[in-house]
# Entry
Amino acid sequence: MKKQIKTVSVILSLLLCAALLAGCGGKTSGTKTGTTSTYAYLLDTTGLNKPSLDLSNPSGMLKDILEKGTLRIATSPDYPPAEFITEDGTIYGSEMMLAKYIADCLGVDLAIETMDFNGTLMAVQTGKVDLGVSGYGWKADRAESYELTTGYIGDPDEAGYHTLIVPAGQEDQYASCADFVGKHILAQAGSLQQMYVEDQILALDAENKTELEFVSTLDQAILGLAAGKCDAVALDGTTAEQYVNQSDGKFALSGVHFDLSLYEDYEGTVMAIKKGETDFLELINSIIETVKENGYYGDFYKAAKAQAGLE
# Structure
């Protein structure tokens, strides 16, 4: 559900952040703002409301974070506007801004480690990082293996969907998921799209003629589609539209949308935490709730979307 994108200069990013923060007043909670941190350019939280957190007697992961003075996150920066790489190699995105806000609420620095999508969850599981922040949707197997946070939505009025893109000129061949039976499909390993293809296309294939191939990054999938090595790539809608728009007429939207009503209603994007770290989960959820109550994530999302050229 991801894509790497080359965008305009980081100067626009700074201007957008300045404009964003100009409209966000309110008192702070007394925690450090972290504006001199490694990723200070992402967000200045000085004027933003923050939750009142009791950090006086930390334990488990929180204790380690406070002692080290750093919140470590893992992300696969190929999913604009949540996380992506700008033209000059700077990491940016609404989730990266949210991570900076969380670090500032804790009074610690932020450290961002980039890797492929599957690697982000492995990094959480092994304790290499404290948080996985990489455009995750809720999945039953993820909930069994990780603590998943409260969901957050960038734009509640923006209807999300998941689809497949195909070579231009072939889109009229597809009217439903059944039309993809027997085709060679690429999906990012561990993604929601993998689950959708398995549940709604492979499940229709009694003769097992459909080939579902996993890739580490969506760039690999797009290169495969461009080279004629597959018939379709499964993506979330925003990313699919971006690939099609930047393909110089090589790709097209299939028009087929996966049926999301088949799944339990867990709205929004979530973060992943090591299983068993329930106290840390509760703390992160309280920070996310403050972000949602104040409408901050919507602001982060708008700024990141403009920076990614998705408006």
